[in-house]
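WARN retry 2 of 3 for item q-0093 after timeout on previous attempt; input resubmitted unchanged.
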Amino acid sequence: MKIKAAVLHEIGAQGPYAETRPLKIEELELDPPGEGEVLIKIKAAGLCHSDLSVINGSRPRPTPMALGHEAAGIVIETGPGVHDLREGDHVVLVFVPSCGCCIPCAEGRPALCEPGAAVNQAGTLLSGGRRLHKQGQAVHHHLGVSAFADHAIVSRRSLIKIDKSLPFEKAALFGCAVITGVGAVLNTGKVIAGSTVAVIGLGGVGLNAVLGAVAAGARQVIAIDLLEDKLSMARELGATATINASDPHCIERVRDLTKGGVDYGFEMAGSSPALELAWNITRRGGQTITAGLPHPDKVLSISPAKLVAEERVLRGSYLGSCVPLRDIPTYIDLYQAGKLPVDQLVTDRISLEDINAAFDDLASGAAVRQIISFAD
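OK item q-0093 returned
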């Protein structure tokens, strides 16, 4: 079938993207679903820094590639071997397909699925195949999803069935921003009620971490960012204190507020200086957790003596350490109960044709979550 998709032909583009237009809206050929695959009509897709990182070269990927990884849609057709989804089912797409057979999957850590990581790097589906083409040339899949398109073929292992009552524009958020931010707090950090938390970097993932910390019952939630409007939004979402990261006394202020440092410091900005800040505001015996993904060449320098003598923990969190089949329905239930107001993070609704300018807004921090809505 013919579909319309946003395709990246070269990484490393410079802004403003509204002028350089790294994403081309093109007609592609989409093959039918293969074994264990599903054809999805995409209804809503969110713009995320992980997409931007491919565009600007911070996360190198093969090209040409149809971008987009945070989305929700409707099942149109199932391939051979798919028996638990039917036409008309509503689904959230997950950007790490889990094979269910490797050691991390067997340990209940599908975010670390080894075949899933390999095919995501290669730009294929979990089967190793590519279902996108243009004039005979294969087009790579972004994280097994390629959601900046009106239709997509994905592995059944990339899909979570959801209640049809949840609007697609809200459901899409649960495929990345929610599980990454909330999951880092609840799964990776296992934040306990009455603890102190700081979140550095208040994009879609960081603000979800704020929501997660509030839902976990943290007594102090300190939000840190360079932009005042993001700090204001964090206060509206329940942060007990906000500090501009440009404040030369930022570290001292956090330590004063918490009498020595936070129990959990979350870095969500995707930068080494932000992670260093998170490390420096975490108390003795505390945890510093990062879900940010800076360029692979960036490094962090810490004192091994402090790591040992202060019994500090430095942890990474990918996909929020989530088990999507368990956590996405749980987080949706929390949202519907009013305990995770994630819909407040949607700042704009755009068309696919507006995508390049929308990435300018994401890069500048002017937007938190922009949602592409696909008309019927």
